[in-house]
Amino acid sequence: MALIDVAISCLNSIREIEEHVKDAIVYIDAGCTESFQLAGAFPLFLELGARAVCSLENMTSLDAAADWNSKFDCANKIVIMTSRVLNDAHRYMLRCLSTHEGVHSCTVFTSISEGSHSACPDSPLGPDAYREYETLLVQDYNEHTKKSEKLSKDKGVSKFSSALESLTMEPIINENVDNSLGGAEGLVVSVHHFPLIICPFTPRAFVLPSQGSVAEASLSRQHEDSLSFGLPPISTGSMSDTDDVPPGATLTAHFLYQLALKMELKLEIFSLGDLSKNVGKILTDMSSLYDVGRRKRSAGLLLVDRTLDLITPCCHGDSLFDRIFSSLPRAERFSSQAQLRQGLPSIDRPSLDAQVPLGEMLNEEPSKIRDSGLPQGVEAFFSGWDSYTSDPQNVGLLNESDKKSTTKWAELLNGSLVGTECFRGTPYLEAMIDRRTKDGSVLVKKWLQEALRRENISVNVRSRPGYATKPELQAMIRALSQSQSSLLKNKGIIQLAAATAASLDESQSAKWDAFSSAEMMLNVSAGDTSQGLAAQISDLINKSAVAELQAKKNEKPDSSLRGLLSFRDALLLTIVGYILAGENFPTSGSGGPFSWQEEHFLKEAIVDAVLENPSAGNLKFLNGLTEELEGRLNRLKSEDNKETPSDDQLDIDALDDDPWGKWGEEEEEEEDADNSKADESYDDMQLKLDLRDRVDSLLRFLHKLSSLRTRNLPLREGSLASESGFSGDASGNKGLLYRLITKVLSKDEIPGLEYHSSTVGRLFKSGFGRFGLGQAKPSLVDQSVILVFVIGGINGREVLEVQEAVSESGRPDIGLLIGGTTLLTPDDMFELLLGQFSHF
Question: Where is this region: Disordered (predicted)?
Answer without folding.
Answer: 636-681
